[in-house]
Amino acid sequence: MKNKGAKRAVVLLSGGLDSATVLYLARAKGYTCSCLIFDYGQLHKKEVLRARRIAEEAGCAYKILKISLPWKGSALLDRKIKIPEKIGRAIPATYVPSRNIIFLSFAASFAEAIGAHAIFIGAHAQDYSGYPDCRPEFITAFGRAIKTGTCAGPNILAPLLGKNKSQIILMGHKLGVPFELTWSCYRGAKTPCLKCDSCRYRAKGFKEAGIVDPLIS
Description:
CATH superfamily: HUPs
Structural class: alpha/beta
Number of strands: 5
Shape: globular
Helix content: 25-40%
CATH architecture: 3-Layer(aba) Sandwich
Largest sheet: 5 strands, parallel
Radius of gyration: 16 Å
Order of helices and strands: EHEHEHEHHEHH
CATH topology: Rossmann fold
Number of domains: 1
Number of helices: 7
Distance between the termini: 47 Å
CATH class: Alpha Beta
């Protein structure tokens, strides 16, 4: 196991503006970041390509990990399930069963292997209103599990948990996040569809932040 005392972190990087902001925040806090990007069978790979470009732009190492979730159970994995276009209160069809549990487990193993002290995840208030594995109590509980079940016990850090989309955009703007490289749309077309709930949240966030979204300007 490598551990030379450096301040190292694993950052879960999806290609969206939330995880990109977390990467730039971790870097600003002095962490040497290793990005973990998942190709988990999502219907389009645009977010994987964007995540790689963001990591390269930030000057950070990255690994793309290909895994399979053959049971699907999400609109992001199964073309037969319709991608929602309305913002509701129920768990949306875009929820991938236990995705963050899976991702954080891989991240914990990666962190131990490279001697990283922290794992950064971009979960935030909007997400945990609909995704059960983005709730603060889950992050806390899983953090305890990692402390108990690993040798190194890296900390799980979710610095966006209490923030909404506009606050995240303002933070990212100050940190110099290349928003033009990020991708939020659940569809992999040339331009954002502006109809799916992720596009709607993004548009609302940029509007409230008073910043022009470079993807649709």
